[in-house]
Write a structure and sequence with these properties.
mainly beta; three-stranded antiparallel sheet
């Protein structure tokens, strides 16, 4: 990524994957961070995701990321990852353009930063 500025980094040691099950409630998996008002003026952002796959291959994986402010979707992104071999650890880098916000929208977000939320959804076929 161009600037080499890291905004957020979640180390593997901070993630508890040992107690996950099919009945796991995704609403309990939360990362809370504050990016600061300068983030709102960025034009492009990159994300590097490292993930591991079990013994079954994945034919196609889709990640959908949505950003909300006060319950309204203000940004939405969709990324597709092709075939993933079983028993592998992979790195996936996303680089995407951020939509321009008005000065008024930025002022509202700066005044209420904890009302800005995001969700990431992963869908796998295979």
């Amino acid at each position: 990524m161009v600037s080499n500025i890291t905004l957020v980094e979640v180390e593997e040691s901070e993630v508890d994957n040992d107690n996950l099950s099919d009945e796991d409630d995704p609403s309990t998996r939360v990362v809370k961070y504050h990016l600061g008002p300068d983030f709102l003026r960025l034009k492009t952002v990159g994300l590097t995701l490292q993930f591991s796959i079990g013994e079954k291959p994945i034919e196609k994986m889709l990640m959908v990321e949505r950003h909300y402010f006060r319950g309204k979707v203000i940004r939405e992104y969709s990324f597709e990852f092709g075939f993933v071999i079983p028993n592998s650890t992979n790195t996936w880098e996303f680089i995407y353009d951020l939509p321009q916000l008005t000065e008024e929208e930025m002022a509202e977000i700066v005044a209420a930063p904890w009302e800005l939320k995001s969700d990431s959804f992963f869908f796998c076929n295979g």
